[in-house]
Amino acid sequence: MSTPSHRVPVAEQVEELLAAEGPLTVLAAGDPVLRRPAEPFDGQLEPALLARFVEALRRTMHAAPGVGLAAPQVGIGLRIAVLEDPAPVPEEVRRARGRVPLPFRVLVNPSYEPVGGERAAFFEGCLSVPGWQAVVARPARVRLTGADEHGRAVDEVVSGWPARIVQHETDHLDGVLYLDRAEPRSLSSHQAVAERWNQPTPEEAARALGFPLPR
Ligand code: ZN
Questions:
Q1: Domain that holds residue 170
Q2: Residue 90 domain-assigned?
Q3: Does pLDDT of 1 surpass 70?
Q4: How far is the CA of 62 from the centre of ligand 1 (A)?
Q5: Does the chain have fewer CB atoms within 10 Å around its N or its C terminus?
Q6: Taken in order 133, 195, 209, 95, is the CA torsion positive or negative?
Q7: Do the Cβ atoms of 136 and 128 come closer than 8 Å?
Q8: Which CATH number belongs to the domain containing residue 144 in this structure?
Q9: CA distance 213 to 136
Q10: What mean pLDDT is predicted for residues 120-140?
Q11: Distance 9 CA to ligand 1 centre (A)
């Protein structure tokens, strides 16, 4: 007889996930776990298990490949996410998007708030929404608070592309997908983005597809 997964202690769920070899399965939109606010992490995983889980998230993010992965995306409802962006982009794109390299890091119980009123709008994708991208206008700069995987407090201001990744992954922990914040008319396949909308900014896409950009 199977037990409903929400009744299994989360440490057992993680042990079960880690029993299989290789990258974890990334769940796609439509799975309710992606829409539930995740529980704050409060020692539900022993340090050794937390370390193994973080490593599995990292491997899965690399394999995808992606620049961030949140625990609910692998079916675990805890406020934990990993980020890493080597930012292999041309200088022109780096300048327009503020896409600077982001070394690997773990966010535990993160939250963010906008700093200043500036917004930045760019195409964004999600491993849980495979095949598609859309333009999301987000605060250009946020204050990130929370902790790292060792329980050390985090309180810093993040800007540029790293600010976008921080917001996207933290939103996952609140049951929010980037599509909830996207310009619906900007929705484009990966192929369309690669063939038509790979300019440093989405201005041409906004004109051609008919969606607004922040001033
Ligand atoms: Zn995502």
A1: 10-209
A2: yes
A3: no
A4: 14
A5: N
A6: positive
A7: no
A8: 3.90.45.10
A9: 9
A10: 98
A11: 25
Residue spans of alpha helices (H) in 86-145: 91-97
Task: Answer whether 107's CB lies under 8 Å from 166's CB.
Answer: yes
Residue 215 within a domain: no
Across 139-151, average pLDDT: 98
Measured CA to CA, the distance from residue 28 to residue 19 in angstroms comes to 21
Is residue 169 annotated as part of the catalytic site, yes or no?
yes
Q: Which chain residues have CB less than 5 Å from ligand 1, an ion?
A: 126
Indicate if the pLDDT at residue 51 is higher than 70: yes
Which residue is catalytic, options 84, 124, 169, 183? 169
Q: Is the pLDDT of residue 2 over 80?
A: no
Distance in Å, CA 8 to ligand 1 centroid: 25
**pTM (two decimals):** 0.95
- Give the whole-angstrom CA distance, residue 106 versus residue 103: 10
Mean per-residue pLDDT, 58-84: 98
Q: With respect to residue 121, please indicate whether it lies within any of the assigned structural domains.
A: yes
Query: What's the pLDDT tens digit per position in 105-126?
Result: 999 999 999 999 999 999 999 9
Instruction: Tell me the torsion sign for CA atoms 161, 187, 66, 92.
Output: negative
Cβ count near 103 (within 10 Å): 9
Establish if 65 belongs to a structural domain.
yes
State the distance from the centre of ligand 1 to the C-alpha of 110, rounded, in angstroms.
Answer: 15
What does the pLDDT read at residue 194? 97
Number of separate domains in the chain: 1
- Residue of 128, 6, 170 lying closest to 76 (CA atoms): 6
